[in-house]
Amino acid sequence: PADTVVNLDTGATFTGSTAIQDAVDNANSDNTLRVGSGTFDESVTVDVDGLTLEGPNAGLAGDSGQRGAEASFQTGGNIDADNVTIDGFELVPGPNAGSGQSRTEILGSNVVITNSDVDVPDGDAPLRLQASANDTVITQNQFANGDGGGFVINARPKPGATNLIDGVEITDNTFENITGTGTTAIQAKGYTNANISGNSFDNIGEDAVRLAGNVSGTEVTDNEFSNYAQDSDIGVPAGAIIANGLSGDNIDISGNQFNDAGGDDRYVVEFSSDVLNVGDIQNNNQFDQNTQLV
User: Fold this and answer.
1) For 206, left (φ over 0), alpha (ψ -120 to 50), or beta?
2) Is the pLDDT score of 5 beyond 90?
């Protein structure tokens, strides 16, 4: 039912503007919460292992024209548990966008965020992965409409953390109309054996994908890049893919389609390191015109 959350395992029903959080707080491990359409004026913190939040558009990609009425809640909570799935929602900014309070922190492992329509908060990353967020899967979502110099998916351990984030998959998402100086769709810093593939990037303020630190074993493959670096003004060239202070080996950048050279006329930029194989990148991707090494 609309405006209602039902625990499919216990039969408990919750209503009201904080019904999702109330249902989470009363759930057991491996329960499924089915959320009806409606606007839930809350951010949600999940600390129950194996919990599934199933929205009314579960199974439908975030940009699907077949989506019906949404269940909407705010980014800004934490995912502190392992094996959590969030499927089929509209995620919107909280009331304090730009302060960090609209950022959902993912600390658990094997978390899945899928089939959701994410309205990017101005100046905040709606999703931030911490060092414990190994094997996170972010797939078939739409991220759109942010402005103001933040990251959309920010995968980086906190300063001083010794662990790297391993095995993350960011696949088959759409990133569009995310503008503003310094705005980057995906930042991956200290992020090994990751798979960034099948995504579409269009009208991005700065970089589409920024790699930094040790990214051994990471694949950036089969993505499509258009209209990036539209608001570039941070003092260094922007591009579809930026490598800043990179380290590691077995980094695969191939099978990507670059539909234009972006606002700074750069497809791929590496600075403060010399790790990428430029020849392989030139030969194993599709560009809208001949590339030059600068």
Assistant:
1) alpha
2) yes
